[in-house]
Amino acid sequence: MSTLNFALKNQTGSNTVYAYITGQAIDNNNALFLLQADGKTAYYPTSPSATQTALAQDCAIPLGASGSTKTVTIPHIAGGRLWFVRDAKLTFYLNPGPALVEPSSSNPSDANYNLYWDFCEFTWNSSQLYVNITFVDFVSLPIALTLTNTSGTSKSVQGLPSDGLATICTALKTQNSKDSAGWDKLIVTTNGNNLRAVSPNTGITLDNTLFKTYYDSYVDQVWSKYTDTALTVNTQGSAGDVTAKVSNGKLTFSTGSISYDQPSTADIFSNSSGAFAVSGDATKDAITARLAAAFNRSTLLTDTNQPNGETVANYYQDAVTNHYSRICHATTSDNRGYAFPYDDVAPTDGADQSGSVYDPNPQLLTVTVGGASSSNSTNKSVNQGDTTTPSQGTQKKSRFAGLKKVMQKLSRKR
C-alpha cells in the first residue's frame, strides 16, 4: 500500500476550517511535500530564487461546515504535520532549498501569529504509521486521533475537550497566583480572547527574562541528594541500567565518560540546550532523555530509579515542576499528550503520556479538530494536579523516546 486515507473531522463550531499537510515524501527522495487543496494531489515545490516566496499551489484543504468530514489521501511521509486553522487560511513560504517556512507561535511578526491554528505530527513509512498530538510549542485548537488498522481494531487519543484552552489558561493563572513564577505570561490573547497557551520553552523565546532561575533550587537539591546516593537510569536500550553520583560538581555515570553539569531552567524546558544538548552518543542521549523527563516531572528527589521507579502518581508533585505540562495532561480527556520533547519517556511497559498512536497496518486515521462538546475536567482538580493513571496506552515507550525531537528536526526547516 503506497497511499493512506486520513478522515479530517471539523468539530470546531466554525464553518470555515482549513487543513494543510506537509512533510517529506519518502518515495520521492524525501522531497519537500505539501498536499494540494483537493486533498489528493501532491505538490513538490522547487527551490525559489528568493526567501519568503509564496507557494505556487493552493494547499488549503477546506473541511466544510462544522460536523463535516473531509477524506484526504497521502503517500509515505516522514516528519509530517497536519495543520488546522479556524476562520482564516495559513500562510506558508518557501526559502531556497527548497525549505518550508512554517507558521510560528514564537514570532509575533509572523503572518499567522494572531490566527487560531494548531497541528499534530505523523510519520508513515513501510514499517508503521506513527501519530501524536503535541503541546510542546503551544496549545490552541483541540485535536483528537483515532487510528483503525486493517483488522478493524482502533486506538485513540482523546486530546483536549472543546473548552480545553480556557481551562488551561485559568489553571495557569491560578498556578501563578501561588508561586508568582510567570505562568500567566504563557497566555497569548487577541482582542481580549485566549488565542493560545505557549509552553515554557516558547515563552522563554518570547520573553527571555521568563523563568530565568526557576529550577535552580530544585537542581541544587538533586545534586546534593546524588552526592551520597546513587542514581540509576534505565536506558531502555542495549546499555541497560547505568548508575551515577555527583563528583566534582558533575553528575558522573559509571559507563564511559558520560557526565552532566547542572542544567539550567532553559535546558530543562527545552530538553536540547546546555547540559541536555544532543551529543550523538546513543547511550548519553538515552540518559539525557530520561533525565530531562525526570526534571520536567520533578521525580528525581522521590525516585532514585529513572524511569522505572516512577509512577504517574509521582509526576509533577514538587512545587517546582513543569506546571504547564502538568496542567495540559490534567486537562486532556485521557491525560495524554506531548507537553515537552521527551514526554514519550515512560517506565518499561508503563502508561503512555505522549498522546501517540501507531500501527504497522493502518487502514484509516481519523483526526478530529474542535474537541468534545463538554469537558470532563470538572471531575478533575486541574489546579492541584491530576494523578490518575491513564486507562489507555501501556506500550513500551523506549523505542520512541526522543522521536519527537527527530520529527521536529525533519519538519521545521526554514
TrEMBL record:
Official protein name in the record: GH64 domain-containing protein
InterPro entries assigned: Glyco_hydro_64, Glyco_hydro_64_fam, Glyco_hydro_64_N_2, Osmotin/thaumatin-like_sf
Family annotation (Gene3D superfamilies): Beta-1,3-glucanase, C-terminal domain, Thaumatin
Biased composition (Polar residues): 369-395
Organism of origin: Penicillium cataractarum
Domain GH64 residue range list: 1-371
Pfam families (alphabetical): Glyco_hydro_64
Annotated spans, Disordered: 369-414
